[in-house]
Amino acid sequence: MHTFDESAKQLAEAVIQYARDRMALDPIPLDGPRSMDELTAAVGATVTPEGIGGARALELFDKELSTSCISVDSPQYVAFIPSAPTKAASMFDLVVGASGLYAGTWLEGAGAIYAENQALAWLAGMAGLPKETAGGVFVPGGSVGNLSALVAARHKARLRRAGDLPARWAIAGTDQAHSSVIAACDVMDVDFIGVPVGDDGRLTGERLRRTLEEAGHDGVFAVVATAGTTNLGIVDDLAGVGAVCAEQDLWFHVDGAYGLAALCAPTVRAKFDGIERADSFVVDPHKWLYAPFDCCALIYRDRADGRRAHTQRAGYLDVVTENEEINPSDYAIGLSRRARGLPFWFSLAVHGTQAYTVAIERTLEVARFATDQIRNRPYLELLHEPDLSVVGFHRVGWTPEDYAVWSQGLLVNGTALVTPTTHAGRTVTRFAIVNPLTSEDDVLTILDTME
Ligand SMILES: *Cc1c(COP(=O)(O)O)cnc(C)c1O
């Protein structure tokens, strides 16, 4: 019988050597996509009845496949939201894969869950949630996190309004809310009530109250505020929104997938005032907290709310669901789970939380530098005073085609990944700076190409 192991010993050396070399790359090349035809020509069929062997598979990955993927950890990657895992976190991702861990239940994964929960507790503590009740789980991303939190919110509303259920449920948020929030409404089949934002782009308590009054919807059960919009990094008025939620008994969810990492950054901490009122929030360590994909912390103010909504029941699960311990699978959609919080935990344990403060403050410094540069160059227009490390701007006179040609050119010659976006109906662009190795020089290089 094939036990898969015959060639494993030789492969181990090669695979670990590959990982070591990849992590030591300096500079990290940006790389970029190739077409389906090019890849077919270079790689061809790899899944065959006999197998192509470890050496060949690894070689193809090294030479052809990996180089056809953009390196999200390249300091010149400043589009979307980059990811810049620490080496400690990346290395530990290998360990997690090698360790035969199942982290859905305490019975099976107690040690891993214990460690993951310390990382969650650090985040919950910075947000000021009550220690005794707060808790949650690491899920694959902000999208799953937002959906899971909102499902828990509705579950709670259903229990509370049993006997008086509305015809339709609804969630309120701004049109700046992340696409995943709209997708969550779709999945849950609930209405979305869009609150108009002012010129500052922010959801405020006052605007929320007015919109709720006007909408007159009797099924609103939750409000989603964003702590760091993806497009421009805008932090909503969390204190104001939280106060309205408290007053009207609405679940207050904060989507901080990108921005809440900066809870540990003193120069911007005050922008998050009010986060301590959240019933739930998400933050992605794979974005601005230096963990590899895929890792989102979903945290409830009272983890019992999550458990009531998400615990799956089955005869073969009674052995784990009927004990008192923490079973991470009870807090989100999904049952089986990788201990995906462990790489983040390991890096936190290795470096200490202060190192995160330093790294994030460094990215904020570079973002402020970029902001000043943009303000001082007559051919550029700053879109919004940045709250965090996303800087949106426009090249005066450029059309969408100009942006497309420019962006493509920078990628093809390996200079940078900066992509166009839209804001207020116009094509514009943005820097998202989360990599502490992204420097002032990188900013200057890119801005000079726009002159
Ligand atoms: C990235 C992001 C998400 C989605 O997170 P994923 O991890 O990509 O699923 C949600 N909300 C905001 C504000 C984001 O920036």
TrEMBL record:
Entry cofactors: pyridoxal 5'-phosphate
InterPro entries tied to this protein: Aromatic_deC, PyrdxlP-dep_de-COase, PyrdxlP-dep_Trfase, PyrdxlP-dep_Trfase_major, PyrdxlP-dep_Trfase_small, Pyridoxal-P_BS
Domain of life, source organism: Bacteria
Residues forming coiled coils: none
Pfam families membership: Pyridoxal_deC
Keywords from the UniProt entry: Decarboxylase, Lyase, Pyridoxal phosphate
Gene3D superfamilies per record: Aspartate Aminotransferase, domain 1 (3.90.1150.10), Type I PLP-dependent aspartate aminotransferase-like (Major domain) (3.40.640.10)
Keyword Transferase: no
Family the UniProt entry places it in: Belongs to the group II decarboxylase family.
Protein name: Pyridoxal phosphate-dependent decarboxylase family protein
